[in-house]
Amino acid sequence: MNNAKNIHIILIIGCIIGFYAYIEPVSSKCEAQIRFYDRDLQRTDKRYLYETITDQQEGKGLDDTLDYSEGNSNGLNSVAKNISSVIQNLQSNMIYIEGGTFQMGESYSSGGLKNPLHKVTLSPFYIGRYEVTNEEWEAVMGSVPSKFDEPKDPVENVSWYDCQEFIKKLNSLTRKIFRLPTEAEWEFAARGGKKSKGYKFSGSNISESGAWHSYHFTSKVGKKSPNELGLYDMSGNVSEWCYDWYNEDYYVHSPEKDPQGPSSGEYKIIRGGDWYDDEKSCHVSLRKCDRPSNSVSYHGFRLALSQW
Question: How many domains does the chain have?
């Protein structure tokens, strides 16, 4: 009887040891995990792969963290190459903007926040040819937050803080210092920089030429005509977060050289108008603002760089 009891106890202990021997390799797998997720959207029920970049990988370029070797399991090779391609394309669409001096604002109120004319001088910078797309957001963040989720449409439903998280991860992958444009940089670029022809919309005096507005959805980026610098959708499609805090009277005491907005505030600047707005809201000088924590289906952004 005692022998049978002892054998039973030994079998139980063996099973426990075997179980932990099995799960240990699973719990200690590499940090760059490949996971699947479902997007709960009307137009698709496909499953997508994405790569999770962990804190241990911050500061490394994409090529340093992903394995492109032949025969790499679980689709890592093709997924990594796709992410790399999207990010490389994003970088190639950064347009150099020669610095210069311009008159920022308007000599009269056009229904937006106070924006008296004042002289601004900017250093050279880079800005995105297009608004950041759903495809680019997904490559960096792993999922799409947008109401309108087509890959080439601009990402939306993102807060100012969400944009900062995207930029932090993108900088980790690229070893560059991407950021949001300042309000002054945004307006200078939207006006056409040194090539400006004085249009009230970005690239035209006719809103229908360059502005996607008064619709019920976003559009593929670059569908309308570009402005003088080859930049698309700076009027309409999605309104764009800028770096600056908002202050109603900032233009009155703004520094002339490279202004960056007030040091603090409650709201962040938004520029450009959007798919839901009327024509007037797409003027290049019009100022709007919103709480940096707000995320709605008509707020998006484009990237800037001080130097390459």
Answer: 1
DSSP 156-225: -S--HHHHHHHHHHHHHHHSS-EEPPPHHHHHHHHHTGGG----SBTTBSSHHHHEE-SSSS---TT-S-
Amino acid letter, residue 154 = P
Is residue 156 in some structural domain? yes
155 occurs within a structural domain: yes
> Does any domain span residue 295?
yes
Residues 6+ apart with CB under 8 A from 183: 242, 243, 244, 259, 261, 269, 271, 287
Q: Is the dihedral of CA 164, 169, 172, 177 positive or negative?
A: negative
**25 lies in some domain:** no
Q: Which residue has the tokens 């150099």?
A: 96
From the CB of residue 133, how many other CB atoms can be counted at a distance below 10 Å?
Answer: 25
Domain of residue 118 covers 87-305
Q: Which two tokens stand for residue 147?
A: 């109401």
For 172, what's the count of Cα atoms within 13 Å in the CB-facing half-sphere?
17
| Strand pairing class (299-300; 304-305) | unpaired
What tokens were used for 91? 């970088």
User: Rounded CA gap, 298 and 30, in Å?
Assistant: 38
Instruction: Give yes or no for a contact between 157 and 299, defined as CB atoms under 8 angstroms apart.
Output: yes
Torsion of CA 245, 201, 159, 88, to 10 degrees: -110
**What CATH number did the domain enclosing 212 receive?**
3.90.1580.10
pLDDT digits (tens, 9 = 90+) for 149-198: 899 999 999 999 999 999 999 999 999 999 999 999 999 999 999 999 98
Indicate the pTM of the whole model.
0.73
CA distance 296 to 18: 51
Relative to beta strand 239-245, strand 299-300 is parallel
Look at residue 38 in the predicted model and tell me its pLDDT.
26
